[in-house]
TrEMBL record:
UniProt cross-references to InterPro entries, sorted A to Z: Signal_recog_part_SRP72_RNA-bd, SRP72, SRP72_TPR-like, TPR-like_helical_dom_sf
PANTHER family: SIGNAL RECOGNITION PARTICLE 72 (PTHR14094), SIGNAL RECOGNITION PARTICLE SUBUNIT SRP72 (PTHR14094:SF9)
Stretches assigned to the Signal recognition particle SRP72 subunit RNA-binding domain: 559-603
Protein name (Swiss-Prot/TrEMBL): Signal recognition particle subunit SRP72
Region spans: Disordered: 555-652
Ranges of Basic and acidic residues composition bias in the record: 558-567, 578-600
Length: 652
């Protein structure tokens, strides 16, 4: 009988990718003949990995003892990575020797582990280093390029697009030559909300895949499905529902090989069908979606979107109390300051559930007390600000935002100050200041944000520094001019060609330090070319057009320098004369007295004649007498009593 070890060695010398089952059989036979054969055990582990039997490979490594484990560090880390044990895979990779760690396959595996663990910056750095080497000998240059584009796209989705070089952010001509690179380049555009570009590149990726001659029909179908699923999402976001529905008909979910892609496809189908459907039925269908396990799991931003979709269905079904309670627990559980922005969408959902999708003053009254209990809830704060803006009442909104920012400033933790000067909150404050015409306050807010991020090694938003520099450059204050120069200096130091930053840098230092800006003059267009088509005389004849200044939204009347206009003279009314007026005739002197007080007044009836007799004119004059008051307090006149007949008492 032939030696199993010799047979295995001869087979390995002539083996191809189709011989893995035979290699495994011979490796098991060699191990049975000699249990201490490390080479046979190593061969068995590799054969199991090639057959995608990763759990069996881990068991085989454990059975081989310390000697086999020290030799199979790469294989063990790969098996742990494929089974979803990412932290164990990282720990295993750290045990590698310097020679092993520096090898290209090992660095490639570390990049894969970092990518799946959502450490996208580390993954992109490793892939970038691999791409810079001469990879022709290894034959993996195309895989490295595809993975680097995927890592950059994930950085964009995670909000760290500023860490990517500007030359890598835009799709190059080489990226559009294969469907894999085109697909990943389109994903990066989706993450930056450049959906129109993404739709065009996805269409090209689909055409390249269909025209590929290296793939079988089954392989083409498997590669086309993720591209179509991503294109459906882009079309739905662009509002092209009919085109998205037409593409959805081409997707058969059971034929999608990857479980995460299958879940995304199911979500797209539910969203498109639920536009005019029954939310209760939509929720029932979503509960039947595929469950993920092991290494087949969604990324964090994907899980966040699916969770928000679930809460949106709860709001449509009027499950307000449950949605409010669930989101409130998650917001309070976010103990780390860096999670403030991650749970911000939950604050919006909580506000919608608490107000029962209401608006106006009634909604604000319901959620203002909640802000006191959750003083660092960014989503709730922005929801209240939006409600005030909808009511055209920006004053209270700005007051709330200023109090919120001051509360964040009182906490000395770096993470809280990062949230305080986050580009979104700074932009909201600047927009509200400008809405009220408070340009100086807006400039001050931008200056504080610029001063903070200039001290950091990296800024999450170059647009924030650019806007701050432009605002400070317009100020006549020398200190603001110096701050503008420092801001643009940080921008031009970053990789990439930022023409606005170069122009601002030149404008800041041209009059103070010409030698400092001289290297950047070549990046700017010469003045002669900019003014080549300008007709100076026509512009002079047209005059100067000045933009209308923003006026503050206050109800107080503003003082004016214009002199007050003279009040118009009062028009005198024309005299009105009575109808029986005769010129030269003396008017009745008693015409202003009431009728009953005139001498010509004659009352009618018995009571009236009696009152007339008692009057002084022609009536009986009543006798009066004066009585002195007790204590010398004075005297009063009273009518004198007259004697009269006493009435006889009647009989009882």
């Amino acid at each position: 009988m032939s030696d199993p070890a010799a047979t295995l060695a001869s087979l390995l010398r002539a083996s191809t990718i189709q011989d893995h089952d035979e290699v495994l059989k011979l490796a098991n036979a060699a191990i049975k003949a000699s249990k201490t054969d490390i080479d046979a055990q190593h061969t068995r582990v590799i054969a199991l990995l090639k057959l995608d039997r990763f759990d069996d490979a881990l068991r085989a490594i454990a059975e081989g003892g310390h000697a086999l484990e020290s030799k199979c560090i790469l294989e063990k880390a790969y098996a742990l990575y494929k089974t979803g044990h990412l932290q164990d895979a990282r720990d295993t990779a750290e045990k590698a020797t310097s020679a092993q760690a520096d090898s290209r396959p090992f660095r490639h595996l570390r990049a894969q582990i970092a990518y799946r663990a959502e450490s996208f910056a580390d993954a992109a750095s490793l892939y970038r280093g691999l791409a810079s080497e001469k990879a022709g000998l290894h034959g993996d240059e195309n895989d490295i390029k595809i993975n680097l584009l995927a890592a950059n796209a994930q950085l964009e989705w995670a909000g760290f697009g500023h860490r990517i070089d500007e030359s890598e952010r835009q799709a190059s001509r080489a990226d559009l030559e294969s469907f894999e690179t085109a697909y990943n380049a389109a994903c990066a555009h989706i993450a930056r909300a450049e959906l129109t570009k993404a739709s065009i590149i996805l269409k090209r990726a689909r055409d390249l895949c269909e025209a590929s001659e290296d793939l079988s029909p089954e392989e083409k179908k498997a590669e086309l499905l993720p591209i179509i699923v991503q294109h459906i999402y882009v079309l739905s976001q662009l509002g092209k529902d009919s085109e998205a529905a037409a593409l959805q008909k081409l997707v058969v979910q059971s034929e999608i090989p990857e479980a995460p892609t299958r879940v995304v496809a199911q979500n797209n189908q539910i969203a498109l069908a639920g536009i005019e459907g029954n939310p209760y039925l939509t929720q029932r269908v979503s509960e039947l979606a595929s469950k993920l396990s092991g290494n087949d799991k969604l990324f964090e931003h994907q899980q966040s979107v699916l969770m928000r979709n679930k809460y949106a269905l709860d709001l449509q079904m009027q499950k307000f109390q449950g949605a409010d309670s669930s989101t409130n627990k998650q917001i309070l559980a976010a103990s780390t300051p860096t999670a403030l922005l991650d749970v911000a969408p939950l604050g919006v959902i909580s506000a919608a559930a608490r107000t029962e999708m209401g608006k106006g003053k009634a909604a604000i009254r319901k959620i203002l007390p909640v802000l006191e209990k959750r003083p660092y809830d960014v989503g709730l704060l922005l929801t209240i600000i939006q409600l005030y803006i909808q009511m055209r009442n920006p004053g209270p909104a700005l007051t709330l935002l200023e109090i919120f920012l001051k509360n964040l400033e009182t906490v000395t933790t770096t993470d809280y100050t990062d949230v305080r000067f986050s580009p979104g909150l700074v932009a909201a404050a600047v927009a509200l200041y400008r809405l009220q015409g408070r340009q100086n306050s807006a400039r001050t807010e931008l200056a504080k944000a610029s001063a903070y991020w200039r001290l950091k090694p990296e800024c999450p938003s170059t647009s924030l520094l650019r806007e701050a520099g432009i605002a400070l450059l317009r100020s006549p204050n020398p200190e603001d001019m110096a701050a503008a120069g420092a801001t643009f200096e940080k921008l031009v130091a970053q990789p990439g060609q930022d023409i606005t930053a170069a122009a601002g840098f030149v404008a800041s230092f041209a009059t103070r330090d010409y030698t400092k800006v001289e290297p950047y003059l070549q990046k700017l267009a010469p003045v002669e070319r900019l003014t080549a088509g300008a007709d100076v005389q026509a512009l002079i004849n047209a005059g100067i057009c000045s933009a209308a200044a923003l006026t503050p939204t206050t109800k107080k009347r503003l003082p004016t320098d214009e002199p007050e206009k003279e009040k118009a003279a009062k028009r005198r009314r024309k005299k009105r004369l009575p109808k029986d007026y005769e010129e030269g005739k003396q008017p009745d002197p008693e015409r202003w007295l009431p009728l009953r007080d005139r001498s010509t007044y004659r009352p009618k009836g018995k009571k009236g004649k009696k009152r007339a007799q008692e009057a002084t004119q022609g009536g009986v004059v009543k006798e009066e007498e004066t009585l002195e008051l007790v204590g010398g307090a004075g005297a009063v006149k009273v009518e004198k009593a007259t004697g009269g007949k006493k009435k006889k008492k009647g009989k009882k």
